[in-house]
Amino acid sequence: QVQLVESGGGSVQTGGSLRLSCAASGRTVSTRVMGWFRQAPGKEREFVASIDSSGSRLAYANSVKDRFTISRINAKNTVYLQMNSLKPEDAAVYYCASRYVYTANYDSWGQGTQVTVSS
């Protein structure tokens, strides 16, 4: 497992942008798949985006495709989520997560960072 700490959340107006960061620590960080998830009040946690260890394989939820961009800098053990054209429905607590490439389950989670979008 690795330790994950998110930052960058905040409050923006519809159409605004935010960049979330996830600082990771642990010996195997650079070899892991990193992901972002979110959970809105009263809703289940949902997948937002993921990136493989090399940064070449990306995946996005349909609801954020073309608006959000996930990236990573392995030398800094940091993963980012650039969020543009934010909508009220994007408001949620955003979580960073990590898993081994050969497993489907994320085994490390951050504490979350709140994103609020006002109309």
Structure, described:
It is a single chain. The protein is mainly beta and 119 residues long. Strands 2, 4, 5, 6, 9, 10 and 11 form a seven-stranded mixed sheet that branches. A four-stranded antiparallel sheet has the order 1-3-8-7, with no helix packed on it. Strand 7 and strand 8 form a beta hairpin. The radius of gyration is 13 Å and the shape is globular. The termini are far apart. The model has no long low-confidence stretch (mean pLDDT 95).
- The rounded distance between the terminal residues' Cα atoms is 38 Å
Radius of gyration, in Å, reads 13 Å
Q: Could you say which structural class the secondary elements and strand pairing correspond to?
A: mainly beta
| N to C succession of SSEs | EEEEEEEEEEE
Q: Name the beta content range.
A: over 45%
* Low-confidence regions: none
Q: Enumerate how many helices there are, as a single number.
A: 0
Largest sheet at a glance? Answer: 7 strands, mixed
- Give the strand tally: 11
Helix % is under 10%
Q: Return the average pLDDT rounded to an integer.
A: 95
**Dominant shape:** globular
